[in-house]
Fold this sequence. Notes:
Blueprint: H1 4-8, E1 12-17, E2 22-27, E3 33-39, H2 48-64, E4 83-88, H3 94-107, E5 112-117, E6 133-139, E7 143-149, E8 158-164, H4 176-192, H5 199-208, H6 216-220, H7 230-242, H8 245-253, H9 257-278, E9 291-296, H10 303-316, E10 322-326, H11 329-339
Parallel strand pairs: 1-4, 4-5, 6-9, 9-10
Antiparallel strand pairs: 1-2, 2-3, 6-7, 7-8
Amino acid sequence: MVNAIARDMPLFLCIDGGGTKTVAVISDAQGAVLSRGEAGPSNLTAGVKHTVAAVISSTQEAISRLPGPSITSWPCSDPVFSRVWVGIAGCARPPDHALLSPFIADLFPGSTWRLTNDGELLTAPITSTDYRVMVTVICGTGSLALRWSRPDLQNPVRQVARSGGWGALLGDEGSGWSMGKEGVKSLLTFAANDRPLVPFHHEVMERLGINDPHDLYPALALSLSGDVDATQAEAERKKKIAGCTKHIVTAALGGDGEAMRILKKVASEVVDLLRPLVEDPVWGAQGEEGTLLVLGGGLSSVKEFRQLVVQGMDKEGWKWGDVKVVSDPAVDGVKALASL
């Protein structure tokens, strides 16, 4: 049974499910954030069971932190939320939606819900602007660039082009995974050529739980263990490698030349990720100057990394109408829900 807080006050829920964590944010009808909850990663490529578990866990935590009388039980058969937006990494194709939609419908009976890729959460800022064209870029554990348009200001945006977002196996350039991978490759290259390791190399080894670079492969080969299935092992391996990013960023900002080389390389990958969307022959008469660019993901929140990306775009001659950084997509998403 759901008590008076759900019946008397409309609640709105937005879930940002990524490769590192899942964030659930609840707001009131004015878009004021009431509570938030977090859980582990929910990338659909790790399996629908893990995705649903993270959605449930993050939502339960957000519900438990609501001010005032508590909702005694969730999931439940009574409608708790007026509108729900669930953005999940790896949920980009019709088969992905078909796989996950029944679970979302069961979790939110009676609610108006929307299931998208997590990249679509970055479209929320356009609702408060006069832009009709926008490009969103996620530089998180993974990466994805999307182009959107709307026929007028009263209609929602529609995805019209895509670049990247194919997962670690096929790239994910411009992401935390890519930066972590470059850091690991740097460590192996230095060790193979008997070059003295730099401080961030030791930090990477410590994060991966090894004392010798030659132990790297066994440390990452979790799929060889009977205790972990292959899908979960791949997700855990990607998370481990992406987790090395913070050591590389910190070292680069501290003046480490090798770390800065990696930072610049990954920033250039973001520019290359954008290229197909900017140089598309059907880009339209508005071009970049009539387009809103929205950056999201952990790397985008690093000012120095962002500056490198902007410098790369400037070299290409790309001039955007405006550039926004979304540090908390679930908050922007829930505010957009409440404004509908």
